[in-house]
Amino acid sequence: MADLIRSNKYRQYSDQKVLRLFSDAPKGEALHFLQVEIDVRGLKDEADQFSESAKPKATHSPWYYLFYLLLFVLFIGRFGSQLF
User: Fold this and answer.
1) Whole-angstrom Cα Rg for the chain
2) Tally of domains in the chain
3) Domain span at residue 69?
């Protein structure tokens, strides 16, 4: 394997911290050096599992739906007589 340039910053981090930083969707230079660290340390499987478990849920909070329901009710209350 060719010698890879490793970042001293990421080299001193623990495996857990590297995985956590990688799951935060880094960009550019940070992404490159984190990928190098994951490859060198052999953390590819753990990175895949960690990033899948760290993904946010795709649904909204119930407060989100209640807020828009309230707005809809206020809209109907204000313009209901003109609509019907």
Assistant:
1) 23
2) 1
3) 8-83
